[in-house]
Amino acid sequence: MLVTRQPVLRRFWYPVMPKALVDLGPQPFTLLDERIVLWKDGGGRYAAMADRCPHRSAALSKGWVDGNALVCPYHGWAYDGRGICVRVPQRPDSGGLKGTAVQSFACTERYGHVWVALDEPLAPIPDWTEESDPAYRRIDQFYEPWNCAGFRLMENSFDNAHIHFVHRRTFGDINDPNPPQPTIERFDYGFVARSDVPVFNTDLQKKNLRDDGAFTVRHITAHWYMPFLRRLHIRYPNGLDHIIVTAATPIADGSCQVVQFCFRNDTETEAAAADIIAFDRRVTEEDREVLEGTDFDAPLDMNSGVERHMPSDQPGLLMRRMLLELLAAHGETEQTRHYAGRQAAE
Amino acid sequence: MLVTQQKVLRRFWYPVIPADRLTDAPAPFTLLGTKLVLFRDAAGKASALIDRCCHRTARLSQGWLDSGNIVCPYHGWTYAGDGRCVRIPQRPGGDPGKGIGVEAFRCSERHGVVWVALEEPLGDIPDLPEYDDPAYRRVFEFYEPWQAPGLRIMENSFDNAHFAFVHKASFGIVDEPEPVQPRLEPHPAGFVMYADVPVKNPDIQKANLGIASDRTIRQYEKTWWMPFSRKMKVTYPNGLVHIIMTLTAPIDDRQSQVIQFLLRSDSEADAPAENLIKFDRQVTHEDMTILAACDDDVPLSLVGELHMPTDRPGLEMRRMLGKLLAEHGEAEVRRGAPVPQPLASAAE
Questions:
Q1: Is A178 touching B (CB cutoff 8 A)?
Q2: Chain B residue closest to A166 (CA)?
Q3: Cβ contacts of residue B346 below 8 Å, gap of 6+?
Q4: pLDDT (tens digit, 0 to 9) for every residue of chain A, 346 residues total?
Q5: Interface of A with B in 131-170 (CB under 8 A)
Q6: CA B225, CA A161: separation in Å to the nearest integer?
Q7: Contact with chain A for residue B84, Cβ under 8 A
Q8: DSSP alpha helices (H): ranges in chain A?
């Protein structure tokens, strides 16, 4: 699937940037090949608009905020959060140009991040109660572009089989490659997968988890929120919750912005955020190395023969099926280089 | 010509890695835009597979070897040197079942180099009798990517006119720019070119060649190994033979991977390898710098670039490659470089 060619994917909320970055001033971001500018107006409201002034196409993200308006750096035309032109300095009495506007997009702030939907969202941003629960802290972990399709990262995180190879140095056990099968329940625009995975416990994790055993068990409740968001709730035997939220926000067909934060029900004294990030960083880098080597045009049709499958691929195959259903429900067919090539060959 | 767009170029053997560099770890290599993984199988035979697992497309070259089979880094699917999947760890007993595998390519080892052909080769890897002749020692020089297509590198090495300019700091005689006209003869590998060229003999070469004069003569016998390799045999007046093997493989339209080694009729005591490499390093730097600045889309026809008589070997390469394409029903694929204007109109 080539994500930029599936308009329905514009109808989801994506976390695009930590709000602290946007608080510094207007910022550029590319979402599904759409160049946007993110900014915060004088009233503290976050806005997302096309990053292109309709006058001479200058990038508004290189401009500045003046009150409740974003000012173009080229000639000073100014726009409010809805994209409406409110001032043209060369025509001081005009109050802007009627009917002139840049395209604006749905934009909001949740979980310390700015979220954007390019078209009318099909589903709300998930509610995670830990955000306001004093028993939990939120730790912002990663914000970085990866050269792979967001879908590859989603599939990867529901794939219990890769742990014993990709993560053999951090928590996988290469001598026990047979993964437990999760039980899966669908919901609107997503599913939840549950499984108990025995894992190896490194020294750093013994400290982070306050568990001295050589092995431990991860009780996993993993939510997939269509199309590229997951929440991985790991409960350890001692009651510790490590809840990782990862978005693979689609930049273009071959790249995504990884946004990751976690919720923990322990304290900084018990486990330092820096150590928690350090372990998750190692794990993430292991995934990244492999995923950046994959073909970004992941085929959704499991019978296409483009890729082979095995039973532990079930969550990823369900994602593919649900995405195909989503496309069909919106009158789209999968856009891919693979089948196009096949049709041309026939 | 854009090499990745000409199918018939897939039907040649290309030198991809010095044999002694392919040991117990897999190596990635991109050949004509196709990503490969190279490794040695259980019997030590060099193997080349597509660098893409048939399960989730991960790169096998990021994996590791297990008893001569390559293990995918993602889920451990394991492939033999012929591409057959021999183990799926998640299946009972690891049994992969039948009919699962990845594409394998012809892979061979000759003259101390691993060669790969993406499709049925049109010819054999050329013979190199001096490689196995005890009268010659072998000196490995370079294994590195150049920002130039193979045809530019080949033309350059058969071009007597560039010495006085590109190599003025090493062996070219800047005051004698009129080049020696070469003589070409057919050869099974491509063609062979003869020329006796006077060159400058700097101090480092005086020691390397055992020739004390400030000038000397290089008696060239250069063989073009179609499409992108050459054997350059230089005989000096004192009988010393210096053979430079420059073997190149097209990575993509713009880049080539170059393997260079020497076969010399003298001994380490006569001229230390270190000094031979030092001089050739200077010379190859001079060439690679200028070649990186040329258009990678070399036209096979006479139009598109201007020519002079000493360009003949390069023009013969272009003609023979054009003929090869035609014989295989292909048109030359170009990016559409602008045609240079004649000097007269440019001056207007």
A1: yes
A2: B74
A3: none
A4: 999 999 999 999 999 999 999 999 999 999 999 999 999 999 999 999 999 999 999 999 999 999 999 999 999 999 999 999 999 999 888 777 777 789 999 999 999 999 999 999 999 999 999 999 999 999 999 999 999 999 999 999 999 999 999 999 888 888 888 888 899 999 999 999 999 988 888 888 888 888 888 888 889 999 999 999 999 999 999 999 999 999 999 999 999 999 999 999 999 999 999 999 999 999 999 999 999 999 999 999 988 889 999 999 999 999 999 999 999 999 999 999 987 634 433 3
A5: 152, 155, 159, 161-162, 164-166
A6: 48
A7: no
A8: 19-22, 150-157, 163-166, 203-209, 273-291, 314-329, 337-345
CB contact under 8 A, A293 and B62: yes
* CB atoms A294 and B90 under 8 Å: no
CB of A317 less than 8 A from some CB of B: no
C-alpha to C-alpha distance for B28 and B109, rounded to whole angstroms: 17
Size of interface A-B (CB pairs under 8 A): 59
Tokens of B120: 């049925």
Beta strand pairing call for A27-31 and A64-66 = unpaired
- ipTM summary value: 0.85
d(CA B87, nearest CA chain A) in Å: 12
Is the minimum CB–CB distance between A177 and chain B shorter than 8 Å?
Answer: yes
Q: What's the pTM? A: 0.87
